[in-house]
Amino acid sequence: MKKIIALVLAMVMALGVFACTKPAVTTDEPTIETPTAAPKTDDEPVVPEVQYERGDDEERYAAALGDYTELYAKAKAETTDLNKRFNLMAQAEALLLESAVMIPTTTQGGAYQISRIAYRTVPYVQWGNDDDRLKGLVISDEFITKEEREELIAAWNAAVLGEAAYDPAAILTGKGHTIQNTYTTTFATAPVTIDWLNTSSQSDTEITVNCVDGLVEYNNLGQMMPALAESWEISEDGLTYTFKIRPNVYWYTSEGAEYAAVTANDFVAGFHHMLDTQAGLEWLVEGVVKGAHEYLGGGSWDEVGYKAEDDSTLVVTLEQPTSYFLTMLTYSCFLPICDSFYQANGGVYGIAEYAAASADTNTYTYGKSEDVASQVYCGPFLLQKLQKDSEIFIVKNPNYYKVDEVKLESVKWVADGGENPDALYKDCVDGVYAAIALTESTGLLAKAKEDGNFDKYSYISDTTSTSYFGGLNLNRGTFALESGAVASPKTEQQKIDTNTALQNKNFRKALQFAFDKGTYNAVSRGEDLKYTNLRNMYTHPNFVQLDAEYTDENGKTFPAGTMYGEMVQYYLEQLGSPIKVADGIDGWFNPEAALAALEAAKEELGDSVTWPIYIDNVYYSASDAQVAQANAYKQVIENTLGSENVVVNLVEATTREDFYACGYRASNGEAGNFDMFYGSGWGPDYGDPSTYLDTFLGEGAGYMTKVIGLF
After folding, report:
1. Domain termination site, one of 460, 492, 524
2. Tens digit of pLDDT for each residue in 249-307?
3. Where are the alpha helices (DSSP H) in 399-452?
4. Is residue 171 part of a domain?
5. What pLDDT is recorded for position 6?
6. Which of 140, 143, 163, 144 has the alpha carbon at shortest distance from 152?
7. How far is it, in rounded angstroms, from Cα 230 to Cα 545?
8. Which residues does 444 contact at the CB level (< 8 Å), separation at least 6?
9. What is the DSSP letter of 29?
10. pLDDT band at 43 (very low <50, low <70, confident <90, very high)
């Protein structure tokens, strides 16, 4: 799900937005620095080689992020004054960035594209899963011209202001276009489950979210609308939400046979199952829904504030007033499951009971990744095919309760790792795919300029609230995959030296300030767009804003309307940090600051390490983009800091599976096989900065700490 998002290796075709797609071509071969030792003579004593040992996660976390955690706890505890809450979170985020354990790199979009997809015909929202919902997608049989796209944008803006309805199909057909009812796109990472409550990866849920509805949803104008909840009421104290479930909505098999009615109990079943699986969604509701934390610690389900009063009434009780709770409901952890179908396929309730039952795959058959019959669906589409190495296929649910809103008869995803961009371009021009990114390094930008498609149809795609970042491994525990693949070339002593150096904040700052993200990005985007999708803070800088003037504890006054990012920038400056947080600039690259931090680190580390320090950077060698970017990273780090101080080892992963196993799909921090990994990102789940910042909580509570090697 949005949540932890892979840096996509394929040329993603969805909605004309190529999620951080960075294909590139280079003539340089990646360089592996392999250390050699001098031969020993017979007279030299044999000295046993030292052995690297992994440290304690909690100690490493406290040393690097203890100040962040302390201040963030104060921010989380502020539930009544949103301006104070946002201000404290901005202060905490400044500490997170200043720790240099991670570096925001890019966001989605900001690339040249050509597309047949009408502007904003899917839900428009910065958080949750709704922007993966395709039922309203409007696709033409022809590429949309620049002039036509500008007209669509103007019509959408007018609709947002309430001045007119937004009808992109009418606009396009009025100009001679024919609207299509099928959509074909690509995928690089197949779902590993179709149990949408047993995963926290977008690659698992971007398909299934089209097959199930939640309580509420956003439309393409960014307005929250009723979905399976016809209506709701909120108690005066803000603690109790009562939802009336829409009648006459049903679950269907993959073939469209009616299975059972959707009831309030299906939402209770979904929430209970989500907590039982402990697949990375449960932390989101701890401290929000009453009793969830206690249940996860061994308490009684009876105390959890998620109850069905009857078939049509769902009552949710919160721990404390939560202003953003309704925005959370568009995220997958609040989706229903069909209780009767779940139990018929071996499902049980209770954390220990579920763990035991799901271990027996002969009796527990619910939500198997390639068995579309192991799930039932209540949404606009039915999943009819899932073959992880070839194709995923969904078809329109003819019995969907809002079937008139479903513009497509079917959607097909085709497996593609982006290894042949010329073929993708040809298929797109021929009408197989609806959109494609035009990048310089793949040659597609030049190709589109040559055939006239660039001048007539190209545009720069919108950036999004998703933030990709690079993480430094503070407590490495893996130096090769179980198969022996993607093995580090480092000696034991070099492992120890790297580990020691990465505990030093100034050394981390030296690495991060030496990372020329513009050069890194240019290998795929080209020089003219190398800054357009750069991101420099974790939370989208304009994610929230103050609705009234606020004065902090030190007397600094921020006027009403101050954006969250402006406050983060102020507090970074108070910390003496050179980081600039605005989007669209290279806000971390600062060679002078990098060298100053390196000198400070060398003084602080003294004789505890031997220079140079070796940094393992894993890349996928079948992707031209990954090869080019890996070489760019090595070049900018070594050129800025000097190869006598830092050497970047480029460590080859020959398959996508191995690359993702090193970081994105690593089960925990100890399983992370890297020193620097920039293959993950985070998309927000709801409308509060905590949706980002929670992911760096300690003690295993934060989902993204594994990308810095912890928990």
Report:
1. 460
2. 999 999 999 999 999 999 999 999 999 999 989 989 999 999 999 999 999 999 999 99
3. 421-429, 444-451
4. yes
5. 61
6. 144
7. 30
8. 421, 422, 425, 436, 437, 438
9. P
10. low
Residue type at 358 in one-letter notation: S
Per DSSP, the three-state class of 3 is coil
Q: Which of 44, 90, 43, 94 is nearest to 65 (CA)?
A: 94
In a domain, 43, yes or no: no
Query: Could you tell me what percent of the chain has a pLDDT over 90?
Result: 88
CA distance 574 to 228: 48
Name the β-bridge partners of 401: none
Distance CA 61, CA 44 (A): 42
- Of 162, 136, 286, residue with least CA distance to 220: 136
Tell me what pLDDT residue 201 has. 85
Residues 209-238: tens digit of each pLDDT: 999 999 999 999 999 999 999 999 999 999
Can you point out the beta strands (E) in 565-707? Answer: 613-620, 646-653, 676-682
Residue holding tokens 């890019």? Answer: 106
Tokens standing for residue 540: 């989208």
Closest by CA to 601, choosing from 709, 496, 473, 509, is 509
Question: Are residues 527 and 572 located together in one domain of the fold?
Answer: yes
The type of residue at 433 is Y
Q: Are 270 and 346 found together in one domain?
A: yes
As a whole number of angstroms, the distance between CA 437 and CA 538 comes to 25
Question: CB neighbours (10 Å) of residue 236?
Answer: 6
What distance lies between CA 253 and its chain's CA centroid?
A: 30
d(CA 53, CA 64): 19
- 40-46 own/partner pairs: CB under 8 Å, 24+ apart: none
Question: Encoding tokens for residue 151?
Answer: 């007209």
37 within some domain: no
CA-to-CA distance for 363 and 232, rounded, in angstroms?
Answer: 38
Q: Please compute Rg for the chain using Cα positions.
A: 26
Q: Determine the Cα–Cα distance for residues 692 and 503; give it in Å rounded to an integer.
A: 24
Q: How far is residue 655's CA from residue 645's CA, in Å, rounded to a whole number? A: 31
**CB distance 675 to 615 below 8 Å:** yes
Query: Would you say 89 and 79 are in contact if contact means Cβ atoms under 8 Å apart?
Result: no
Each residue's pLDDT tens digit, 615-674: 999 999 998 889 999 999 999 999 999 999 999 999 999 999 999 999 988 999 999 999
Tokens of 625: 């983009």
| Final residue before a domain boundary, out of 381, 400, 433 | 381
Residue 100 has pLDDT above 70, yes or no: yes
Structure tokens at 546: 């103050």
b (16+ CB within 10 A) / e for 344-367 = ebebbbebeebeebbeeeeebebb
Burial classification of residue 452, based on how many CB atoms lie within 10 Å of its CB (0-12 exposed, 13-18 middle, 19 or more buried): exposed
What are the phi and psi torsion angles at 635 (to 5°)?
Answer: -60, -50
**pTM of the full predicted structure?**
0.81
Instruction: Please tell me the distance from the alpha carbon of residue 46 to that of residue 26, in angstroms, as a whole number.
Output: 44
Same domain assignment for residues 702 and 587: yes
Q: Count of domains in the chain? A: 3
Is the separation of the CB atoms in 480 and 487 below 8 Å? yes
Are 282 and 295 spatial neighbours (Cβ–Cβ below 8 Å)?
Answer: no
- The DSSP-derived string for 120-160 is T-S---SSSSGGG--TT--EESSPPPHHHHHHHHHHHHHHH
Confidence label for 418 from pLDDT (cuts 50, 70 and 90) = confident
State the helix-helix crossing angle for 492-502 and 591-605, rounded to 10 degrees: 110
Distances (CA, A) of 656 to 341, 369, 417, 525: 34, 18, 8, 22
Cα 64 to Cα 502, 568, 697, 705: the distances in Å are 10, 19, 12, 12
Give residue 519's identity as a one-letter amino acid code: T
Which CATH number does the domain housing residue 276 bear? 3.90.76.10
| Assigned token pair, 146 | 């620049």
Is the distance from CB of 639 to CB of 631 less than 8 angstroms? no
CA-wise closest residue to 141 among 121, 118, 109: 118
